# Entry
Amino acid sequence: MTAPKYVGLENYQKIFSDVRIGNVYLTTIRLTAMIVPCNMTLGLALAVLLDRKMPTIIRNFFKVSYFFPFVVSGVAVSIIWTFLFHRDLGPINYYLGLIGFERIYWLNSSTYSPLAIVIADVWKNVGFYVLVFLGGMQAISRDFYESAEVDGATAWQQFRHITLPLLSPTILFLMVISVIGALQIFEQPQILTNGGPGDATRTIVMYIYEQGFRFFDMGYASAIAFTLFIIILVLTIIQFALSRRWVFYS
# Structure
């Protein structure tokens, strides 16, 4: 084993000559752009449905059902979805065939593989968003809604002018952690597609792992990891800066 050697900024210079890292970052950004809106929108929609009047036992059943995948290992979730997305044996293609669709190469297609990763990630994590959104909505005083009903506001008007503004701190919190989590996604692409085909689903964290633990270039892996840290830091600062325009604290 060779002794460590100081190379200055050589590892950072290598980033600019690496022809693959641009595509890997672009793939990561594309996945983030799909995962974040799906988690936020679906989580909010399900939380709104659970916030309706219903028996407590039914509400608790749905809470547990939505949240359970979140506490399951990401590896286990990915293995489950590997079977579900299997071209020949997977239930998804089976039921698609029953309604006249051709079998889809979910895990071997540059078109469908990113979608498969998004579906698996959202299924695992959306329950967390549901519970946080639900907690935020239940913390809103019912006096606001009662006053709105007296004034003749519709359900949509109450949601738009009461729920969303008062839920904005919760939305900001979830948006920040959603972007951070999506930029660091690893288990789903690693197990479902191994980054393929080509680099179509290879994320930056996968690339860092490969450089450090497959090619044993720890210095270069650390340099890439530092660039990811800077990107996450900048995006977080931007989100908090923009939040001054739309986040309201009661």
